[in-house]
Amino acid sequence: MSRLRRRRWPVFAIVIGVLGLLAWYVLYTQQVVTSLRREAAVQARMYARIYEALQDTSATADPTVALFDLSRAIRESGLPIVVTDPSGRVTASANVPEDITRDTAAMRAFVAQLDKRNPAIVEPAIGAVHLGDSQVVAGLRTIPALQAVGIVLLVGFGIYALVERGRAEREKVWAGMAREAAHQLGTPLSAMAGWLELLEDSVTGATPTKAVRAMQQDVQRLERVSHRFERIGRPPRRDDVDCNALVDRIAEYFALRAPTLARTVRIRGEHPAEAVSVPGDTVLLEWVLEVLVKNAMDALGGKNGEVVISARAEPEGVRIRVQDDGPGVPRQLRRRIFDAGFSTKDRGWGIGLSLARRIVEEHHGGQLVLADTDRGAAFDIILRG
């Protein structure tokens, strides 16, 4: 998953959570209204039956019929009720699970729970009436907590949206500045290329000619750097990248500039004879490899060493590796090396590896990982074909 997707998934999760909570709240309120209407109908029937019994003054009137009707209405209401005598023995119950009614200890614990919710009603003639909450009341207890969660989600979504908006605006400004810098560099680079052509025509001898060619390579590299800044903030290209040629070009460039006096750093490229290619942006991939090679050279710490740039085809794409034989990355720092601003060098800015991973993941849908090696450090660029 790319970093861009990782950055967006909290927004999607919060939006889905808030919408789901609102949908549940609307449906639940409708169920509450329906339940309240049902309870009101039951209470109305109870009142009508009591009123009918009171009005029946005939000699054949049986009040027990009305009491049985009231008992049935209480059971239909779903309200848990337990009746105990003065000694605490259960004499009657309604809407209590059967597994509790069969266990005396469980019934005592259930009665204690009912008393915590509602005070028992003491009747001298029968003992005490212990009653719980109806299903509607029990459900309404959770509503304030869910409303608080919904408010927290909404506030969190608002804060996250503001932060992301500010970040997007900053990235837009930086992208504009980078493209403007590339535009400004274009004119002097073109002039320098023209002057080098005139200088090449006028110089003689092997050493001056070699120096002019080295200067031309540096100008070409500056032009490539300028092109990189032009790509910032724009959709990446999906050209057919020749990974073998890319590896050779980077290795040759750094081999000519590697230290050879006080210490010797050897830089070489490795790749199979057959073509290795992958869709991508050549300019941006060159940028990534240059970052990795520079870090590998710095990791040697002033000692002799070797940096190997290799490319190989895999069943699902291409793997490009930059490996050195230096001291490697300490285990306690491996989780932080890709964090922006983190650097182990005194003068480092800590943006190279972060930028490289962003180019690989966001612009190419691949992975940049620190591979496990027996010696030194190895960074793998994994690109899908």
Task: Write structural notes for this entry.
The chain has helices at 3-55, 63-77, 98-101, 104-117, 135-140, 143-202, 206-231, 243-255, 282-299, 352-364; strands at residues 81-84, 90-94, 121-123, 127-131, 239-242, 265-270, 277-280, 305-314, 317-324, 367-371, 377-384. The chain is of the alpha+beta class and 385 residues long. It has 4 domains: 1-78 and 135-141; 80-132, no CATH class; 143-212; 237-384, Histidine kinase-like ATPase, C-terminal domain (Heat Shock Protein 90), CATH 3.30.565. It has a 5-stranded mixed beta sheet with strand order 6-8-9-11-10. A 4-stranded antiparallel beta sheet has the order 2-1-4-3, with helices on one face. A two-stranded antiparallel ribbon has the order 5-7. The longest helix has 60 residues, at 143-202. The model has no long low-confidence stretch (mean pLDDT 77).
Element layout with pairings:
Blueprint: H1 3-55, H2 63-77, E1 81-84, E2 90-94, H3 98-101, H4 104-117, E3 121-123, E4 127-131, H5 135-140, H6 143-202, H7 206-231, E5 239-242, H8 243-255, E6 265-270, E7 277-280, H9 282-299, E8 305-314, E9 317-324, H10 352-364, E10 367-371, E11 377-384
Parallel strand pairs: 6-8
Antiparallel strand pairs: 1-2, 1-4, 3-4, 5-7, 8-9, 9-11, 10-11
Helix pairs in contact: 1-2, 1-6, 6-7, 8-9, 9-10
